[in-house]
Amino acid sequence: MPIYVYECQNCKKTTQVRAKMSDSAPKLCNHCQAQDTMQKVIAPTAFQLQGGGWFAQGYSSSSGASGGSSGSSE
């Protein structure tokens, strides 16, 4: 199950919730106990591509290492 981040519109504190995609937002804020003030926050992911990797080796436009033809045939 994914982890979602919700922010209370009353106290502006965030809460992480492990829930199904079909679950609704929490009804009660854990910090200020306000009802129906939780809103889902779109958080950045921790996924990063680092190093040479597949992009530089196979999909770079300046390199002919991908095996494709460059238009010159002899």
- State the share of residues found in helices, binned by percent: under 10%
Q: Specify the structural class.
A: mainly beta
Helical element count? 1
Question: What percent of residues are in strands?
Answer: 15-25%
Mean of pLDDT: 78
Strand/helix succession: EEEH
Q: Low-confidence segments, ≥5 residues, pLDDT <50?
A: none
Could you describe the largest sheet, including whether it forms a barrel? 3 strands, antiparallel
Shape: elongated
Distance between the termini: 56 Å
Radius of gyration: 23 Å
Secondary structure layout:
Elements: E1 3-8, E2 14-18, E3 38-41, H1 53-58
Folded structure, characterized:
- By secondary structure, the protein is mostly beta strands.
- Helices cover 8% and strands 20% of the residues.
- It has a domain at 3-44.
- Strands 2-1-3 form a 3-stranded antiparallel beta sheet, with no helix packed on it.
What key attributes describe this structure?
3-stranded antiparallel sheet, 74 residues, elongated, mainly beta, 20% strand
Briefly characterize the structure.
The chain is mostly beta strands and about 70 residues long. The protein is built from 1 helix and 3 strands, in the order βββα.
